[in-house]
Design brief:
Elements (H helix, E strand, L loop, with lengths): L1 H9 L21 E5 L3 H12 L3 E4 L6 H10 L2 E2 L3 H7 L2 E4 L6 H5 L8 E4 L5 H8 L5 E7 L10 E5 L3 H7 L6 E6 L4 H29 L3 H11 L3 H32 L5 H11 L11 H11 L20
Parallel strand pairs: 1-2, 1-4, 2-3, 4-5, 5-6, 7-8
Antiparallel strand pairs: 6-7
Helix pairs in contact: 2-3, 8-10, 8-11, 8-12, 10-11, 10-12
Length: about 325
């Protein structure tokens, strides 16, 4: 089991807090990885591990047909229940919407393997999760679901981060150790997403304001002269918000908490959470009408939705 492997492997790594090793550990550790719960990101990460020779399992109990389909497509082995997943796994990899991360970790208090929380949560939330499980590694994923090399990084922190990075050696996921301190990987993820998703929300709000004031066409004309990339970026932001905005509400709130904890204003991302909370949930987000649908939702009086509605159960999808 991995708990006995990890300390032995870790002795060979001289890791100082805040350092990033120049080279990833090259030797592969054969383990069983349990994925919670294989959404869009988790299923593809699981498939990447499986392609590199790792055994990857998941639990279908109380999961939707969509999740079952993703897991089957990824070739993951169904072990039925979370209890059986905990019994079979050396490593549990949690990839879920951020609002569910603590609740999910709390279901593994007696798990004796290594729990990797790879969710978009604040450093404070990462430390809370670490207090719920016996052995924890903090993780943050940057990039799309890994379907080809060079697109996706998994940042890791914590005492056992080097051994977890070793598990990903040979996969198309670029696992990088950030620090020996729990919370560092999450801090990096928060800072990165604060820009990418925060500015996307701001761009949508700018378009909505310009439309409401009757100057949208003039704004677009100016953008073509001075910021020609913004029209296409705003369309991309609308498409993403329609497909994923409901999942990003909690992430924006975690980012806001991260800012507040460092003494910085948290209003930027509280507002972004509200923008994403107003996005109508839709899998049909392609085409130019995505922007029209999103701007209509933002501009309609009383269109804001309760960001926490329906969050009493764990959603199946992830970023």
């Amino acid at each position: 089991m991995l708990p006995s492997v990890l300390p032995q492997r870790r002795k060979s790594v001289d890791l100082q807090a805040g350092s990033i090793p120049a080279r990833r550990i090259s030797q592969t550790v054969a383990v069983t990885v349990g994925v919670l719960h294989p959404g869009e990101m988790g299923a593809v990460v699981g498939a990447a591990l499986r392609a590199a020779g790792q055994t990857v399992v998941w639990a279908s109990a109380e999961r939707s047909a969509a999740t079952v389909g993703r897991a089957e497509e990824a070739g993951l082995e169904d072990v039925g229940s979370l209890d059986e997943l905990a019994r079979r796994s050396d490593v549990v990899l949690s990839v879920c919407p951020p609002h569910a991360a603590v609740e999910l970790a709390d279901a593994f208090p007696r798990f004796t393997g290594t729990y990797v929380d790879a969710n978009a949560v604040s450093p404070a939330t990462a430390r809370t999760i670490a207090g719920l499980v016996d052995r924890c590694v903090d993780g943050g994923i940057v990039g799309p679901p890994p379907r080809r090399p060079g697109t996706t990084r998994l940042y890791l922190s914590g005492a056992d981060a080097p051994a977890v990075a070793e598990i990903f050696a040979g996969t198309i996921v670029d696992a990088r150790v950030v620090s020996a301190e729990i919370g560092a990987a999450s801090a990096l993820k928060m800072a990165y997403a604060a820009w990418t998703k925060g500015t996307a929300a701001l761009l949508l709000a700018v378009r909505a304001v310009a439309r409401a004031e009757g100057v949208e066409e003039a704004l677009l004309a100016e953008w073509e002269l001075s910021l020609p990339e913004l029209p296409e970026r705003s369309l991309g932001a609308a498409r993403s918000a329609l497909r994923k905005g409901w999942r990003w509400v909690g992430e924006m709130e975690e980012i806001a908490g991260t800012f507040a904890a460092t003494g910085l204003p948290d209003g930027f991302h509280r507002a972004a959470a509200e923008i994403y909370g107003r996005a109508p949930r839709s899998d049909r987000a392609e085409g130019d009408n995505a922007l029209e649908r999103m701007l209509a939702a933002l501009s309609a009086s009383g269109s804001a939705v309760d960001a926490h509605a329906g969050m009493q159960h764990l959603p199946d999808a992830q970023e």
